[in-house]
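<instruction>
Derive structure tokens from the sequence
<data>
Labelled lines for chain and fold
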Amino acid sequence: MEIEKLDLSSMNIVEEQKAKLKKLFPEVFTEGRKIDFERLKATLGEDVDSGKERYGMNWPGKGECFKTIQQPSIATLVPCPEESVNFDTTENLFIEGDNLEVLKLLQKSYLGKIKMIYIDPPYNTGNEFIYPDNYTESLETYLSYTGQIDDEGRKFSTNTETEGRFHSKWLNMMYPRLFLAKNLLRDDGVIFISIDDNEVDNLKKVCNEIFGEENYKGTIVRATGQTTGQDSGGLGQSFDYIFVYSKNIATELSGLPLSDDDLKRYEEEDEKGKYALWQLRKTGSNDRREDRPTMFFKIKDPDGEDVLPIGPTGYESCWRFDRKGYEKLLKENYIVWKKRIRNEKEHWWPYVKTYLLGKTKRPSPLWTDIEGSKKASIDLRDLMNNKIFDNPKPIQLISKIIQILSELNNNTEIVLDFFAGSCTTAHAVLDLNQEDNGNRKFICVQLPEPTDPNSEAFKAGYKTIAGIGKERIRRVIKKINDENKGKLKFEENSIDLGFKVFKLAPSNIKAWNANVEKNPEAVQQQLFDYIDHISHVSREEALLYEILLKSGFELSTKVEKLDLAGKAVYNVAEGGILVCLEKNLTKDLFRAIAEKRPARCVCLDRGFQNDDQLKTNAVQTMKDKGVEFRTV
């Protein structure tokens, strides 16, 4: 009897896009799930642009970007407990590998689950970013680059300004990654992307295409504290930029905590708490009567006289609220009258109470109050006892970004950084959690890019950038533990001070190659190879996590090892799935698994030892208890 096999491929992006389209327009699909574009045009009417000339962005290689996106990954992520901290309990992740492959592998497990993405991608200043020469062989290129397979010409190389397609290569690197990143964002998710002048125009156009121009939330301009390009003959560069895009137009950014200067305004206090007084009259832009006609009306002062919202030069202005809103504030004791002098005459003027509790301020797009790049380098050097990484982002920058996403302040939300570098993002998350007892989680992805043999990093023992990032996280965790040792409040409200390390690697399971040469010898060889398609060098734990990842479970999912009928069984997500990787399965085992009534059960096909009767019995046992049963 043949049992249905577990789907061990990464998410099919094309099928996912078609499913979205079918949900909106089921009428445009024909037999075989093909799309009838004539029906789609008829459905959308005149909104279909079928002309050859249209506004948009194009560059050499853009078509290949979509092929890259659609190509499924044949890789997996192998757990490395020996490089981790608190592997069994933590929910933070560090993934070492090519971020394109990693983003593909995360699609099933983290689709629509990431609240915030921050990335600091290569700025494309020449020679400082590496990319695969052959985008169609991403995994093989990565394995060759990291020395895991023999070099057959596949490699990562730098992008130099002398190359004719300098900007195109950068766009070809960025487009698929941003496309896949968008899939991972929650509906209320937001992405922040650092960039400088070299690619700022191209990145803006690409983001408008992928995220939608309507979802652009603004650009943060950050003072770097250093001026570069002073010998260029033009203006020097003292700023970089952070583009902010939401996945959904309805998503709003939160305010920032008030500064010490802001707090000085809240000097009054009543039974509701501290408050500041703001003029009831609208000030600033759109403050004229014609701007808000319903907010121009008479109110009575304490002497019973009529008062109108008249501006300082005598023009008719408006109140901050309409009449209904004013009456409500008056009834609830929010309106305060004070005497003031105007035109050498004393008169009453209305103010409204604004309470401090929960008060924030709208972020400015110009951030000049953050430590510069030089200070960030010094802080990292002090932590690592050496200058091992150039131009890290300031911790304060990431912290401030997190603060303008209110739900990230202390809830269980995930922050993703897939150009992690020295892992400033992880550092910021851990520090903020310590400050407010938060429960934010991070996922950091970094290519094991070799450090320069002549660099201080290499001399200090850090052979790759990924190695620097992992060690930084370990040191931050140790620092937090050391600083809070013996503090009862810290120990009672323990935060997640750990991280799981995973590394990109070939799948533990041989996939059937549909592109094998169509000759008897090649087909026969593949049949022999497929008899036992589980790699003999795979660790059980690696195989377990590949099954979980490709079954849609997060890498941080709780795993408990059980003993059922004398066999090892992994209980995942408290009965979400039971996984048995034993090589000799029994009837007693399947009865014991069925009695647990998990939602799903997965075991190795080779565990049946070609016993068809045992297979039939296992299928029926699981069916009787309503358990979905699959084999690998």
The mean pLDDT is 87. Residues 587 and 614 are 7 Å apart (CA to CA).
